[in-house]
Amino acid sequence: MGTLRFKLISWFLLVLLIVLVVFGLLLYLARERSLYATLDSELQNTALQLANQVDIEKEEVFLKSGEFTFPKDMYYEITNEKGELISKSTTLQEHNLPFVSPDKEKQNFIIQSIPSWEKHPLRLITLKKIVREESDDEDSKKPSVALNSQTLFIQCAKSTWLIDEELEELVNLIFWVGLATFLIAGLGGFFLAGRALLPIKQITQTVQDLSETHLSERIDISKFDKEFHPLATQLNAALERLEKAFQRERQFTSDASHELRTPLSVIVNNIEVLLKRQRSPEEHVEIHQSNLETSHQMQHIIEGLLTLTRIDAGQISLQKKEINLYNLMEEVFGNLQSKAAQHKVSLINQIEKNTSISVAEDKFKQVLINLLDNAITYNRPDGSVTVASQKENSGITIKIIDTGIGIRQEHLTHIFERFYRVDPSRSEKTGGCGLGLSIVKSIMELHGGSISVTSDNDGSIFTITLPNN
Amino acid sequence: MRILLVEDNKALVKSLRKGLEEESFAVDVAFDGEEGLYLAENNPYDIILLDIMLPKMDGITVLRELRKKKIQTHILILTARDASDDKVKGLDEGADDYLTKPFRYDELLARIRALLRREHKIKEPILKIADLEINVRTHQVWRNKIEISLKPKEYAVLEYLAYHPNEIVSRTQLWEHIYEWQNESTSNVIDVYINYLRNKIDKDHEKKLLYTVRGEGYVLKG
Questions:
Q1: Which residue of chain A comes nearest to B20, CA vs CA?
Q2: Pick from A43, A155, A385, B197: CA 20 to 30 A from residue A173's CA?
Q3: Chain A interface includes B103 (CB < 8 A)
Q4: β-bridge mates for residue A153, sequence order
Q5: Distance between CA A326 and CA A357 in Å, rounded?
Q6: Would you call A254 and B14 a contact, using CB atoms and an 8 Å cutoff?
Q7: Is A397 exposed, middle or buried (0-12, 13-18, 19+ CB in 10 A)?
Q8: A424-440 as b/e, with b when 16 or more CB fall inside 10 Å?
Q9: Nearest CA in chain A to B33
Q10: Chain A residues closer than 8 Å to B29 by CB
């Protein structure tokens, strides 16, 4: 029940319920008020008319007989101050109305409800009237002199059962109409919420249908309402990234398998051909030699793959320490001296003698060896490889400058990619497996540094940067 | 039979060439796609072994170009990728078969023989012309149940003729199918092998199988 649909409907129904209750209450109160106002004005009118009928003569209070006929559905009772009954309606029969006196001096009348009088709810008005006996003087211009005055209480009442009945009906009506509204709206809300959530279902379905092999599928944004466009767009973008990642992964696996299968097929083929016939010792040696070389090649690729995989998996922790860059470079030069001599390339160390860097020595040495090895291999005869460094605020920059054949512009952006080869046929001569530069890049990134390259016909410059600690 | 091997890995080329030549195949090698395409266009190969990942021009493009130029040579793809996409693509572009590296050398040979049989619409693995029998797998030859020992080139000439029985095969045609591209011998050398063959298969038998058609070439008929 923790579904969004349920929550939506719950909130919707709660609000609806509050609205219905408030509406019903207001309707009830307004109706009640209007009914009572009508009743009250009726009572008041009747009481006033009744009051007009009251007269006094010789201390005797009486009702003038006149045109006024008292409504049959009302009661009245007139009492004096002492509570003596002066007159009452016939409708009262033997009963008396409950006496309520308007408390305050100024209050002429009071209207109130008596919830239960003789088993009836009653609306009662009590009007205070002072009657004065006037002189019989016919000259009305003379100020009348009060001879005798009496305070009378004129009470009029009417049963409110009709009103109560009507209000009760109203309550019933409000309840049933409210309930029906509630149910219809609830049902409608249920479907509407479902309808509103349908796109989410569809998007989910689309994403569910994706499998590793069908990552190229996308959510058709045009099918959805505007509100869902950001979601669909974001999902599509995420799918795009995922697809690319899978593609890279597949490419890498496929490249790796290709790089390993070819040398493996050399070894297998060599052995099968060898076993076909009787072979001379020389032939054996030759084939073993070939297999050994190929095995070394495979070992080289596997080590490279392993290094990359370990870096990718974050399994390599760098044991950084301060080392002297000049000395390290001399050491690397020493390792490559014979190869440089073979290619007639001179190595020039222009690094300041006191330059120190903080790196994982073995890894960083591998970076330098890889870069310098390339710089020698792809150099021209009688060329040179110059290594220089420069301290900057943010760290240190090391440049490896060769006088080689250069790298064509279209290859520059790809050369750090795994298994990328500027010329596939070159691998035979140089023994590279297409992983060297990507390993270099990974190691530099592991150090928080970076590598970049520029190249033209006069050679290439590889620039590596190392940040300060 | 003459094979074009298009493969950039030198060690694999060396190993395959050695093996195939020992099986009496004439082997030409191209180390990249462009060279492969050029050789295939200009020589009458019986089989082309084509790698997919090649420098300069990939194998699929070579394949497409060859088929576009109506070159019908049977092509067997050697691929280091086992992704079925490559196989499907290769076969759909007109390749006849494929092998995934690393492959068994014996399987490669068997597939080459199968392609040759398909080329010549033969089902039996043993070629028969009258009472002459040739086992193309073991390179054994019998005449009237008696095994005849042949030198590799003699065998190559006989095998080619046996794949084209009752057909006049010119000297040049024979020469083109048993020698590789840069061989310096001339087609006259074929006459020498024909003579050797005649001595070995026809000499002691009443019924002659190998005939010379003057001015045209040779024919093996039963």
A1: A273
A2: A43
A3: yes
A4: A79, A128
A5: 10
A6: no
A7: middle
A8: beebeeeebbbbbbbbb
A9: A425
A10: none
CB atoms within 10 A of CB A330: 14
ipTM above 0.85, yes or no: no
Assess B206–A contact: CB distance below 8 Å, yes or no.
no
Residue at token pair 């029969």: A93
Who among B11, B22, B53 is closest to A294 (CB)? B11
Give which of A266, A420, A433 to mutate to test B binding, by max B Cβ within 10 Å: A266
CA distances from B81 to A207, B60, B127 (A): 30, 13, 35
Identify the helix (H) or strand (E) that includes residue A452.
Answer: strand A450-456
Given the structure tokens 């070894």, which residue do they identify? A267
> Is B31 near chain A, with CB under 8 Å?
yes
Contact B12 A257 (CB under 8 A): no
Give the distance from residue A245's alpha carbon to the nearest chain B alpha carbon, in angstroms: 18
3-state class (DSSP) for residue A326 = helix
d(CA A27, CA A12): 22
Among B16, B55, B100, whose Cβ lies nearest the Cβ of A269?
A: B16
The torsion defined by the Cα of B190, B195, B199 and B200, in degrees rounded to 10, comes to 0
Tens digit of pLDDT at every position of chain A (469 positions): 568 888 888 888 899 999 999 999 999 999 999 999 999 998 888 888 888 888 777 777 777 776 677 788 888 888 887 778 888 887 777 777 777 766 655 667 888 888 877 777 888 888 888 877 765 555 555 555 556 777 888 888 888 888 888 999 999 999 999 999 999 988 988 888 888 888 888 888 877 777 666 777 777 788 777 888 888 888 888 888 888 888 878 878 877 887 888 889 999 999 999 998 889 999 999 999 999 989 988 888 888 888 888 888 877 778 888 999 999 999 999 999 999 999 999 999 999 888 889 998 888 998 999 999 989 988 888 999 999 999 888 889 999 999 988 888 888 888 888 887 776 554 444 556 778 888 899 899 889 999 999 998 889 999 999 998 6
Chain B residue numbers touching A428 (CB-CB < 8 A) = 8-10
For residues A14 and B95, what is the distance between their CA atoms, to the nearest angstrom? 72
Is the Cβ of B18 closer than 8 Å to some Cβ of chain A?
A: yes
| Candidates B81, B103, B105; nearest CB to A273 | B105
Q: Distance from A269 to chain B by nearest Cα, in Å?
A: 6
- Non-local (6+) Cβ contacts of B30 within 8 A are B4, B5, B6, B7, B36, B38, B39
